């Protein structure tokens, strides 16, 4: 029945929790970028989404998801299949290494969203988006393609 009414589980999830944005649209084209330069595009895509009209819906969505075990489980599945699969597409390494790298990227992106838009911790909350990209993208890039054994 899911496939009769929806294109797949991701669309069902988005409808059931009123996801304020389509991750595929937000991250369109990221998977085609060279992994060596992908981090800035990821941070810019996140900032575009959160700086836009969907911000209030995104904050409400995050707050509601964190408080619900069922929504958190659905979100985890959607993040793995829809968001991380795009971000991590084409990265070299074993599937386990790519999964670890994806999880590390997620720590930075989720942390950025929580601190900047939900908790609104200053000075990050009001920082210029270009500064945020400059500060956060190098860490994400390290998680994407850098040496995970040696801190930089």
UniProtKB/TrEMBL annotation:
The segment(s) forming the Tetracyclin repressor-like C-terminal domain are 40-144
Q: Which Gene3D superfamilies match?
A: Tetracycline Repressor, domain 2
Pfam families reported in the protein's UniProt record: TetR_C_16 (PF17920)
What's the protein name?
Tetracyclin repressor-like C-terminal domain-containing protein
């Amino acid at each position: 029945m899911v496939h009769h009414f929806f294109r797949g589980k991701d669309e069902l999830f988005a409808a059931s929790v009123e996801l304020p944005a389509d991750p595929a649209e937000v991250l369109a084209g990221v998977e085609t970028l060279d992994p060596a330069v992908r981090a800035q595009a990821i941070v810019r895509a996140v900032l575009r989404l959160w700086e836009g009209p969907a911000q209030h819906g995104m904050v409400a969505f995050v707050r509601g998801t964190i408080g619900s075990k069922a929504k958190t489980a659905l979100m985890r599945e959607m993040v793995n299949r829809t968001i991380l699969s795009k971000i991590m597409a084409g990265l070299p390494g074993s599937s386990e290494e790519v999964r670890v790298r994806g999880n590390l990227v997620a720590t930075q992106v989720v942390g950025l969203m929580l601190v900047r838009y939900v908790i609104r911790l200053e000075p990050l909350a009001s920082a210029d988006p270009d500064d945020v990209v400059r500060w956060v993208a190098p860490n994400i890039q390290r998680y994407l393609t850098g040496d995970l054994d040696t801190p930089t």
